[in-house]
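Progress against Task 2.4 (sequence-to-structure conversion) is shown through the following example record, which the project officer requested during the mid-term review.
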Amino acid sequence: MRLFCIGDIVSEAGRIALQKRLAGLKQKYHPDAIIINGENGAIGNGIDRQTAEELFSLGADVITGGNHSFQRKEAKGLHEETECLLRPANWLGDPFGRGECRLDMGAYDLRVISLQGTLYMSNCENPFTVLDRLLADSTPRDLTIIDFHAEATSEKQALARYADGRAALVFGTHTHVQTNDAVILPKGTGYLTDLGMCGSQHSILGKGLEPCIHNFLDPENRMKITDGEAPYMINGLLAEIDEKNKRCISLELINIKEIN
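Structure tokens generated for the chain above:
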């Protein structure tokens, strides 16, 4: 199978980039499924109903989450009623919605798990032990993919190594900067530390240059953060997976710039 994983959608700019290029990318790569991290897809941050509907209409099969999944007031109802809209499975307490989903692909089930890191992030249950608990419920049909929404590269690498041979693919999200370390681990798990983002190319993590720079120079007199503008960019990863052996066989970085 061919799986297209798309980095964090940053506000309207990220959605515009997908509107302009995703159809062409689908024609070029013919993915069997598309996973998009959408927890920053609404204007400002978070995800709202309009954003989720738009991403699904553009071709997302699964929308994964992160620390901004609960940012909007409507998040609870939206996550409860939308099966393939995920929030991190390791949120503490009694979170609404779901942290995983399965897509029936015929001969196998594509199982997508959303997890969040604990280093420099909101307080969550240990993602390693939660992953063990989730994988204990695996079936022979499961082909498992993990979106690990985390800040620290060390935590992402450690979880990928821990999952090696038990998941077909582990990719990181959250930092909005695409890494260049795509690798197939010894037991067959594909890995990339961070997919990157979709949004404004000439920006700081998808946000306007002027307020971001100003706030580092003068943190006592902060400017309101604005969303970046055109030109846009798309970051992602194309993974080819042997569905019979449930192992990754190739990885290709997607990095498209100057989208106007």
